[in-house]
Amino acid sequence: MFVTLFTDLPDLVILNILRYLSPFDAIQAFYNIDNNTERILNLLIEGQCFSTIHHFRLSLFNFVCDYVLSRIGNKLSHLTLYDHQLGLAHKKQILLYLTNILSLHLINIVEITENDNHLSYFLHKQLKNLTIKFLSENHIEAQAYVCEQFIFNKKSENLIDCCLLNNYGIQLQHLTLFPNNSIEKMTVQLKQLSDLHVLFDHLLNIKILNIELCRWTIEDIKYDYTKLPKKLSHLIEFSLKSEHILSFNQIITIIRYLIHLKKLSFIYRNYDEYGIDINQLELTLNYLKNLTQFHFIIKFIYFNLNPKLTFENNIQFKQQWNIHTYKNSLYKNYLAYTQPFINRKYSISTDILFQDNSIDFSSITNLSLITHTKQLSILPFIHLLNSNFPSITHLHIVDSFGIEDNNNYDFKLPKIHSFDASELKISNLFQIFLQSMPNLIYLHVNLNVLLTYDLKLLLTKNKIKHLELITNNLDEINNILFYFSSLEHLVINSKKQSNQYTRKYLQIIFDWFHICSQLYIIHVKAHKLSDLFYLVHTESDETIHVQYSSEMLTVWK
Known about the structure:
Blueprint lengths: L10 H9 L3 H8 L6 H10 L11 H15 L5 E5 H9 L11 E7 L9 H4 L6 E6 L6 H11 L9 E5 L19 E6 L2 H10 L5 E6 L14 H4 L5 E7 L4 H9 L6 E9 L6 H10 L5 E9 L13 H6 L2 E6 L4 E6 L6 E5 L16 E5 L8 H4 L2 H4 L5 E5 L19 E6 L3 H9 L6 E5 H4 L4 H4 L7 E5 L6 H5 L7 E5 L13 H9 L5 E5 L19 E4 L3 E5 L1
Parallel strand pairs: 1-2, 2-3, 3-4, 4-5, 5-6, 6-7, 7-8, 8-9, 12-13, 13-14, 14-15, 15-16, 16-17, 17-18, 18-19
Antiparallel strand pairs: 9-11, 10-11, 19-21, 20-21
């Protein structure tokens, strides 16, 4: 009987095997096989397996920076890095080898200091695509630096596509900005409407603009929208998300003057006492002579709905744009949306979870399911998810009231890989959900919910690699981690906790690595990190990297 070793296979066969694996899995499995490291390394490079180095353990990240990037050279055009990796990558001067980086994605950027600004190293002139996810609401220095010193500065003369994300909103007002001539596509979460006005005035050649507003804006804010047809003469696609941020009149006013649009979409949620002016919406769209695609989600709560202020009063307009509506008279909810449904992320109340099979929600991959009534349990609706939302992989349950339900439900959600249970009120619901998700990889949950169960039974053979716990009781975490043998990424979020516990030394963090052998990255988030830890200076080395700001501690192993 002949035994063929993996390393005896021809190069083409190995390359085909690598293509069936994710780059991360391929490297983890094969980069240091026996004495054939050099050959396998060349094949991994040829198979483009080092294109996502931000997922690597510290030792592998160092290896790639020291020995691999010099071989890749100009073959790599995109780079993604987390905040805690910037300093190390800057120290190793990786851009000396990566001379063709045209696309940059930076994740969880927290803050910068005058003497240690690693952002400036990576924000170079040749960038064409830039995505930055900011983490903190309080540290605005990094956001201001990116906007003032790069995006709205002559340094960004080649930048075409830009994405700036911060769930709290990015503020552009009062910054020193210069007009940008190069950006053609921008996606940004803004603080408020006045920041959108700043964009309108500074994006001279924008073609595609995707906006989410995060903070309520006063109705009578002053801005001359009549100049937009000339200012935004190239803008052909525009999307706007506003959840209880803008009035419907404000949205109509903005849209009215974007006369060059070919594609328009918006999400509007608010309280409208009698309804919304559908005739005004139709009149506004009539000004957009080039418009060929129109998508929206409108949901409002009303007091006394005027039938004349609904889509049912304008059948022709409703049919023209394939508008579906739903009214719940008991809970005063009105919902209207266009088909086909194009959004990948959506939130919906259980009291209006659709049972009409003609409605296609196959585009939804990220679903938030919210209970808004004290009379209904959430469980009877879950069996509808597989049929009504066949593509969802991320589920977020917002159980506002925590209705007990002792009935037996048998359902499986095999496609769910990510579950946010941080807002579940009733513990037994969590158990039911968890047992229905055999392929769960990401879990976000309150530690107190976990502590109510026999974890040995609940978490048997779980595949969870990413765990986020809401707690500031660090003493209980050790006992929890024993049941997560596959865990690689741990996040401790203490921001929502009110009780205070005794401060700990950082050694308690290092102990978690010993409990979970696969664990290699830990983040601890807090309003004030010094309330949780004695922040004694710890030197980073080749085996462990420690970084902290006032709000977040990262330990990378």
